[in-house]
Amino acid sequence: REALYNTMRSLGMREAPNAYGLERSKILGKTKLMVNAQQYSLSVIAPLRFAIAAAHKLPVLTETVAIPWPHVIGHDLWQASIDTMPIEAARLLANPELLRQLGDNLHHRLCVEWTFRKGVEEALNETH
DSSP labels for 73-110? Predict the structure, then answer.
């Protein structure tokens, strides 16, 4: 991931500092794009990151995932290989309307359509 972040920095992008609570919320409110690069060679979704992004209507560019469900790539989530993420991030940042749409769609997917409560209730109903 360090090579990814170095390349992104060389293109003029910067990462947000670590923060919690209200400070994190303020930072995320000013952030244009969340980049999700896995620490390990796993092609899975980081649900907590995506939930935080959805709450802030923050678009997500993720490293390619094997099964993006419940997301729809290109609608509420954008993905790219680790090698092309810097280029994709630059393309997304140059298109504010697409960023807005992705953030709105992600928010709708996880905060309206597919809430935590709905997931729990659905799982409970399947067991009965």
Answer: BTTTBEEE-TTTHHHHHHHHHT-HHHHHHHHHHHHHII
Question: Token digits for 70?
Answer: 């419940």
Task: Please say whether the dihedral angle defined by the alpha carbons of residues 91, 96, 98 and 102, taken in this order, is positive or negative.
Answer: positive
What is the C-alpha to C-alpha distance for residues 80 and 65, in angstroms, rounded to an integer?
9
Query: Cα 121 from chain centroid?
Result: 25
Does the pLDDT value for residue 3 go beyond 80? yes
Q: pLDDT (tens digit, 9 = 90+) per residue, 4-35?
A: 889 999 999 998 899 999 999 999 999 999 99
Other Cβ atoms closer than 10 A to 54:
24
Q: Output the pTM of the full model.
A: 0.88
Instruction: Note the helical H segments in the chain.
Output: 2-10, 21-30, 47-55, 85-93, 96-108, 116-126
CA–CA–CA angle 56, 58, 59 (5° rounding): 155
